[in-house]
Amino acid sequence: MNQDKLQALFDMQKTLNRRIGVDTDAMTDDDKVKWILNYCRALSQELAELTDSVPWKWWAKYQTFDKQNARVEVVDMFHFLISLAQVLGMSADDVYSAYVKKNKVNHERQESGYLVKDHADNKNI
Fold first, then answer.
1. What is the CATH number of domain 5-90?
2. In CA terms, which of 62, 72, 110, 117 is 20 to 30 Å from 31?
């Protein structure tokens, strides 16, 4: 069986979350708010860890680029992004569909010069 890779990631994350005690399918609206904030904070932390994988301190000469750790931090961010999508009731298919639509909007913005913010261009995503 050749399972869709994005779907496989969503399935693995659901299994891991349930093992941890987080069931995104059974959340109340209050639970969803709590977990959206939890996952946003976790993403922020993983982004900070990714930032620390590159020599960003221009005043410090000891730093090196830790490519392996940077790659791990990106994967950690996927864990939390997928969990966040699941809290919002999004399936792998939903994320793919929204990505395709948003990607089209982003290309259209570039073609037009993106001189003015059009809040309506995201309405159909």
1. 1.10.287
2. 72
User: Which one, of 120, 97, 118, 96, lies nearest residue 109 by Cα?
Assistant: 118
Separation of CA 90 from chain center? 12
Closest CA to 87 of 26, 45, 44: 26
Q: What is the pLDDT of residues 58-105, one digit of tens each?
A: 999 999 999 999 999 999 999 999 999 999 999 999 999 999 999 999
> Rounded to whole angstroms, how far apart are CA atoms 65 and 54?
5
Listed as own residue / partner, the contacts of 97-104 with beta carbons closer than 8 Å and 24 or more positions apart are 98/125, 101/125
Asked whether the beta carbons of 56 and 64 are under 8 A apart, the reply is no
Question: What residues contact 70, with CB distance under 8 A and at least 6 apart?
Answer: 50, 53, 54
